[in-house]
Amino acid sequence: MIRVSAAYDLAGLVFAAIAVASALARGEAKRFANAAFWGLLALSFLAGDRLGNLGNGWLVLGLALIGGLLGLGPAPAMAAEGAPRAARLGSRVFLPLLIIPLVTLVGTASLGLIRPGGAPLVDPKQVTVISLALGVVIALAAAMIMTRLPLTAPVQEARRLLQSVGAAAILPQLLAALGAVFVLAGVGPAIQSLMGAWIPLDNRLAVVMAYCAGMALFTMVVGNAFAAFPIMVAGLGAPLIVGRFGGDAAIMGALGMLSGFCGTLMTPMASHNIIPTALLDLPPWAVIRVQAPTALTLLAVNMTLMALLVFHGR
Amino acid sequence: MLSLIGVPVVLLGLVLRFNPLLVVTVAALVTGLAAGVPPLALIAALGKAFNDARYVSVVFLVLPVVGLMERAGLQARARELVGRLRALTTGRLLLAYLAARQFSAAVGLLSLGGQANMVRPLIAPMAEGAAEAALGPGDANRATEIRAQAAASDNIGAFFGEDIFVALGSVLLIVAVLRQNHLSVEPAAVALWAVPTAIAAFLIHGARLLRLDAWLRRSGRSA
Questions:
Q1: Alpha carbon separation from B7 to A61, A200, A234, B10 (Å, rounded)
Q2: How large is the ipTM?
Q3: Rounded CA gap, B132 and B81, in Å?
Q4: Which domain range does residue A137 map to?
Q5: Is B37 helix (H, G, I), strand (E, B) or coil?
Q6: Contact B54 A44 (CB under 8 A)
Q7: Over the stretch B26-68, which tens digit does the pLDDT of each residue have?
Q8: Helices B6-15, A204-222: crossing angle, 10 deg rounding
Q9: Is A92 a domain residue?
Q10: Mapping DSSP to helix (H, G, I), strand (E, B) and coil, where does residue A268 land?
Q11: Number of folded domains that form chain A
């Protein structure tokens, strides 16, 4: 059976090639720091399941020290050659980028149905990620044939883009790890008792407001609505909105998560804001500044909807 | 209560503009130690969570393809194509992308869009090209505003579309968490109650995108 580790291996090979190319880039600032950083990330993707938890932990600390204290070098410029072919390619230049979603789509819909000898060919839980990896391989082949650039070109260009993202590339993964430590340390129950001390828990509208606002705020702290949701549901949603006041569980769940998404739009801790800021070469708060007015209005909409709907029929 | 110490560490680190990798790592270590987790167990927990979250970074797989096609003139071509369509202003283009992103996420096709495979190579250059065609060359401020708007359209479309799709991600997580709290709900009911917010998100952000064109015209004149 093809598992998700195949996609991780592929990503690991890409990171490893970038590490080697970084080390060979003579005259480039901090080339060995770059090589060590992408090399460690390659190790995580290629061998993460064999390093053990403690081994992976040291690896994370190593990445944080190299990326955080040493710092990575600037991104290399795009190679000039290849530009003359652009005119001849015309709009076909879009083709490889359309292949990726197309293969992802078709693969997700069909790969799960292939069962030679009764066993699934592809891990049914991970079909999308595996299809995406397959789409990238096909698109890359098409791109190489179309552009007739040398075999080193995809590595050079991927290095240019990844280096422009820089050490922030691992921030989303690191934030997920922070969320796990928060759970381990009991941050959820602590927040619950803190809120209990400040909010009039016998007023159902106050509890609805606190639940929605708490989802948004806690999401902003941990950078991920999925991490905040279990804590707010266990703290306020389930025992009070549904339990004490008889609210509708589906409405409480749906609008709570959507309030968390409003928080995601406003936090520099979310990968959704970190990655475009890096990829589009934007100043730190640019994406959040644009999103905040929509997010705050939608948070008010969610609170109003929940206040009006969750206790329907009561 | 001591376990909350990571929260001010993160906030202070971000406000003082320390390197975010260091801030997050220090926050994790301080939080764990304050809660009495033994140091080695803490490092192992960090490592396990990092390893389990590798799927987050699989998006970088598309970089070789995107980089290669950029070298073959992808962004220039995207700008050029949009420049020919006079009716396609920056705001209208992003509004169309918002609608497409929200709709495709709502039918389960979250992976069709994205910052690395759509916004950077196509949507952002197209939005900039539309502004260039209508208003002439702009300054760095305009480029920042348009790119940030392109990124925001992708995020808002994805977030407030995916919650309508029954069989994936957030709806299933909601159902699972509610079940842990002994509340049984149908996924379809959760998805249904996400629809009003999805409509509100499209109306609110769509209206802001249409006002973006007027803002771009004004800022073009004053510059």
A1: 20, 24, 20, 5
A2: 0.84
A3: 12
A4: 5-170
A5: coil
A6: yes
A7: 989 999 999 889 999 999 999 998 998 887 788 788 899 989 9
A8: 60
A9: yes
A10: coil
A11: 2
